[in-house]
């Protein structure tokens, strides 16, 4: 089976009715970028920059960060890379960075990601400067994790724009263009999409944190791992609404959580209107095979009906549909 997936490396993820979907990989370390070549993916939809911070004994210097980011862009070549700014705090603590000695009772909902980065702005400035210079003369794509309110996006973008101006003032060639995105992981953000979307170049739905917050269920809790299904009407309706809002606003939207790496879940995501998935490299083969046997228009019709009147078990209904349609 593995050989069969490997043989699909150069085949595009096109459905039987001619939909060209975008399949990208999630990565976090310089070496992960090789997966672009082995899987034939369209790009890196989520580069978790904090991995470099987590494996380091001290705060990575600006120059070292810049080298890593440039290497990643060099290796990716013409394929796009979306860098996510540091998502630390919560369960990803840096031993060399104090959290101001605050004991957090709920670290996942605590001082993490963009919340921490906007306050510890020296960290964010160093990273922005490293990314801006690494992408000199190229397209830079960045996205910000755990955005809960539009002003957080504004501030993060402004911080990058200042580094762009600074680099130019110092005679450095700036990136050709910088594309800015937000991650949708906090449900509250979905209520202010009319305010947020006009500011964005793209949106990326992080289903790991999003489902944790939608169900109020710790994503790492062993007793809860099986309890809530990604294929629940609540999650699928929620994502369907977000995708519709993005489509109406003309803002590209994708999913970068682990949900998209399972074939049936990926099918459901495509069913609610998504055309872009960023997934773990090992899943590219199976998900591509699924897409190549899928009639997207027919699936979307079915999904609309299923979400309008959800069956008792959405997973079973979707699995039966897939089986009956040779997906
Ligand atoms: C997510 O929350 O879905 C996500 C992609 O980010 P991470 O898993 O790194 O929190
Ligand atoms: Mg997340």
From TrEMBL:
Query: What is its subcellular localisation?
Result: Cytoplasm
Q: Which domain of life is it from?
A: Bacteria
* Family assignment from sequence similarity: Belongs to the PEP-utilizing enzyme family.
Name of the protein this chain belongs to = phosphoenolpyruvate--protein phosphotransferase
Organism from which the protein derives: Sphingomonas natans
Name the lineage: Bacteria, Pseudomonadati, Pseudomonadota, Alphaproteobacteria, Sphingomonadales
What gene makes this protein?
ptsP
Q: What range of the intact protein is shown?
A: 430 to 756 of 759
